[in-house]
Specification:
The protein is α/β, with parallel strands linked by helices. The protein has 3 domains: about 180 residues, 2-Layer Sandwich (Transcription Regulator spoIIAA), CATH 3.30.750; about 40 residues, no CATH class; about 70 residues, Orthogonal Bundle (Arc Repressor Mutant, subunit A), CATH 1.10.10. The chain is about 40% helix and about 15% strand. It contains 13 helices and 11 strands. The strands form 3 sheets. A 6-stranded mixed β-sheet has the order 1-2-3-4-6-5. A 3-stranded antiparallel β-sheet has the order 7-8-9, with no helix packed on it. Helix 5 packs parallel to helix 7. The chain is globular, with a radius of gyration of 21 Å. The two termini are about 40 Å apart.
Length: about 300
């Protein structure tokens, strides 16, 4: 996004109400002049989609940056006063091994960003890679994907190393040093209202969800307000709230409504009860989707 356009957008927002403004960036695309303009526009947090620090993995996924460029990006951001930085890593990429994953985690520790996100690689069945995997082919590095067992091991390795070095997991995929949790991430998991502007942007007002068209031509030509879908708070509170490591404290009504799945997963050791609080157990994190869907009434 051009700096002038970013300035125009940010001027539409009352500056006195801003506490955290995150800009997502592709590593290797940051220059000093841009960063200075970001700071002037009240950007105070930057998230870098690193994915990996291993050159083979990066090239297999079409990423052009290098580990050294990420290092330079962080130095540039910090020199401009932006210290609230997130780095994304993905477990399960093509060509990924235990050795290459630990190489990426070594870089995370050296760069010492206060926030780290660890995601599991998900194959889009409509993508070229996804179609090749379904066909059992070997193009697009399809045969080099680690299996599910190894991917789970890599994720757990990251959890253990980050914990030893001071990053606390506060949500399934998000880790932060104390006081550096992402405020906008927490809004989603705590069911607080948010508003989205632009193509395919999603919004939630506390009662309804809605989204803008995800096709540009349709978005530009649409003169109808988006359809709103009423949220079932009982279901949503479990479905999103249990993603947080602190879990939730169910009300008596919620305990009655979800008595069966609560009992099922507590007895299986996948949910833990601590007083009135309910949360995922450490061993259940990678099975969370299976657990959470039990709290949605189909």
């Amino acid at each position: 996004m051009a700096s002038d356009l970013l300035d125009d957008i940010m001027r539409a927002i009352p500056y006195e109400s801003l506490c955290e403004v995150t800009l997502e960036c592709a590593p290797g695309t940051i220059i000093g002049e841009k960063v200075s303009r970001w700071v002037q526009a009240s950007i105070n947090r930057v998230s870098l989609g690193v994915q990996s620090f291993n050159i083979t993995e990066l090239r297999a996924t079409g990423r052009r940056h290098t580990a050294e460029e990420v290092k330079s990006d962080l130095a540039l951001l910090r020199s401009a006063g932006i210290n609230n930085i997130n780095l994304d890593l993905i477990a399960g990429l093509p060509h990924q091994t235990r050795e290459s994953w630990n190489e990426s985690l070594d870089w995370i520790e050296r760069l010492d960003a206060p926030h780290v996100s660890i995601y599991i690689f998900e194959i889009d069945e409509d993508s070229r890679l996804g179609q090749e995997v379904l066909l059992g082919g070997n193009r697009y590095s399809a045969r080099t994907l680690p299996d599910e067992e190894l991917t789970a091991e890599l994720y757990q390795t990251a959890v253990d190393r980050l914990a030893r070095n001071g990053w606390e997991r506060y949500e399934i995929s998000n880790f932060a040093r104390p006081g550096w949790q992402s405020r906008h991430n927490l809004k989603y998991w705590q069911l607080e209202p948010y508003i989205g502007f632009g193509l395919d942007a999603h919004s939630f007002d506390g009662r309804y969800r809605w989204s803008n068209p995800d096709i540009l031509d349709k978005y530009l030509r649409s003169d109808q307000p988006p359809l709103k879908e009423e949220v079932n708070h009982l279901e949503e509170r479990f479905f999103v709230g249990l993603r947080l490591m602190n879990g939730i404290t169910p009300t008596p009504e919620e305990r009655r409504k979800f008595a069966e799945p609560i009992s099922k997963w507590v007895n299986a050791g996948m949910l833990e009860e601590d007083g009135n609080a309910l949360r995922l157990s450490p061993q259940s994190i990678l099975l969370s989707n299976e657990i959470l869907q039990d709290f949605i009434q189909l």
